[in-house]
Amino acid sequence: MPPRVALRDCRERVPQGPYGWDKSLRSVHVVSSKDQQIDESHIRPIGVLKRQPTLGGEGDDGSEGEEDDDEEEGEGTFQHVSSEERKLRDITRRHRDICKKYVQIKSKAKSVEQYFGGPEDFHRFLKENGDVLGAVGEKGETLLHHFARQRKGQLLVRHLVGDFPELVHQKNRNGYTAPHIAGVQDTCNQQFIKAILKTREKIPALHQECGNGNLLHIILQSMLPIVEIVHNALKEVSDAQQRHKILEDLFACRDKKGQTPLHVAINTIARHNTGLTTPDIPPMIRFISFALAENPQALSHTDNIGRTPLHVAVKAIGDSFASPPPSQPSPNIEYLIDWVQDLTTRCPREFYKRTEDNRLPYELLGSAKNYTVLRKLSEDIKRLYMRELPVDELKEILYDVPTVGTQPHSSGPGGEKTIYFDLSNDAENNYTYKRLTRLARHVQFESILHHVDLPCLTVSGGENLLEDSQSDQEESRRTSSLPGRVDFVKVFQWLRSKGVSEIIDVSVVDDCNTPHCEEAIEMALRGFGVEILNWNRFDMPSDAIFNAAPGVRELYLYSSSNNEVLRGWSAPGGLEKLEKVRADEF
Q1: CB 300 within 8 A of CB 308
Q2: What is the tens place of the pLDDT at every residue in 98-107?
């Protein structure tokens, strides 16, 4: 019978270790079928039993510990120690020695040479260790991986990256680069990241992905003091196209939740009880504003549940006012409110995008939109929808229950209001002030109206409407003494008295024979911020239009072929003063 192979200790047995094998086991014996031990003088160790490490090691940072032992004991496979393995072990041992000795040096030197005691000592260090400084040791780790776990080493790290830039991108066998190791430690190694960001590899390092986003994700989540360094590094890219491409790629990267760095930044700002101090937040706001100015597309990326960064920001604002509401929003939320407020002007189209459950940003505010501190933001978002969306869709967004345009109705539990005033289909064109008042006795208007549509009509009575209590005495006299017709002045004054402050679209059919004078039109529309003006009156002068609706975007003109008026429209200082109207629309 051929001899059988068994594992035996060359010394006397001792109690087993935690893995079932005695810790002193270091050799293999060949035993005959009769269990007779051969001459031990010929026995020599040919390998060790090693426990196969698991991915992720002892933590979630991809590191597998910094064991000082060259061998690991435990159950597993029997592996032959090759010369290559011994070489890797030696590299790792020397990496650890370098790292240990370096961090033990107490110095406030400003250069790596001074840190080592002078140029001669530093060059001696390079000569003695030059063969391993750029080498890869066990587990695919470099000297940078070891320094990523230390709190010292900026000067040497910068020198290493200068001589061996590839070290920044070397991944260990778990797929982590040294910057990622530094970023996902329990206490983030900001000093190491700062050192990397001062090298020529700073931009490529930010792009590095490790299966859960890039390095920028980590910095924006847990290394806020470094955000300003990143901001400055990106601003230093002089080529505009290159800078745009860098930011486009950085902010398109997604983590496991589908979140881009912008999503992460918003979540970081919105966190309530993280110990973040107010000075941490303005640099973050400046950075993401800079990124959006260079790459507005970053605001369009959605996460795994269909939310853009704007959705995340608005929901965070709304949630911060959940019951019980705070007396004052936290400083972080105030910064977020200002940022979203700015986006209503800079990126208005983003407010029309819906989440997967079909909600617009305005709806994500929830009941918070009723708070005074959010009134301006709420009104600005509402104005965007008034400009673009049809009335029926507006009702669904602003209120859960559809409302009626001008007909009396009771306010429902949702506090719905009337969003337009339209008399164009009314058969009766002769109104008294009392009838006008009865018409909307139970109507509560929104402060911003989608449109006002008035046919040619007369309004008898209501002269008190011409005495504007909010105007000074001289202005009131001017209004009450206007020549000619003042019917529409009364209607618009009445709307003001009902709480209307803005009207997006105004359509008026004036009397062809006795139209309202220019001053009456100015008085009627003053301060409403009209954006679409269709006042059906021939030959309205440029000055009257400008004074009535200086921010008009869409303008309808009616001409009787009066050459003087036509010249006035086209002359310098005429319609060109209307900055928001394009010339090709005249």
Answers
A1: yes
A2: 998 888 887 7
In 3D, which of 578, 503, 509 has the Cα closest to residue 543?
578
* Contact criterion met (CB below 8 Å) for 261 and 220: yes
Q: Which phi and psi angles does 158 have, rounded to 5°?
A: -65, -40
CA dist., res. 391 & res. 419, Å (int): 8
Closest CA to 550 of 524, 527, 517, 573: 527
Q: Do 3 and 84 belong to one domain?
A: no
DSSP 249-276: HHTT---TTS--HHHHHHHHHH-SSS--
Answer yes or no: do 384 and 496 share one domain.
no
Examine residue 407 and state whether it is found in any structural domain, yes or no.
no
Domain of 25 in residue numbering reads as 1-46
Q: What is the pLDDT of residues 197-233, one digit of tens each?
A: 999 999 999 999 887 899 999 999 888 889 999 999 9
DSSP letter, residue 420: E
- Region at 76 (left for phi over 0; alpha for psi -120 to 50; beta for the rest): left
Rounded Cα distance, 405 and 419, in Å: 7
Indicate the length of the chain as a whole number.
586
Structural contact between residues 260 and 252, judged by C-beta atoms closer than 8 angstroms: yes
Q: Are 318 and 378 in contact (CB under 8 A)?
A: no
As a whole number of angstroms, the distance between CA 395 and CA 146 comes to: 61
Other CB atoms within a 10 A radius of the CB of residue 85 amount to 13
Classify the phi-psi angles of 188: left when phi > 0, otherwise alpha if psi is within -120 to 50, otherwise beta.
Answer: beta
328 domain residue, yes or no: yes
Please provide the distance, in angstroms rounded to a whole number, between the alpha carbons at the two ends of the chain.
Answer: 107
Task: Give per-residue pLDDT as tens, 351-371.
Answer: 999 999 999 999 999 988 888
Question: Do residue 483 and residue 379 come from a single domain?
Answer: no
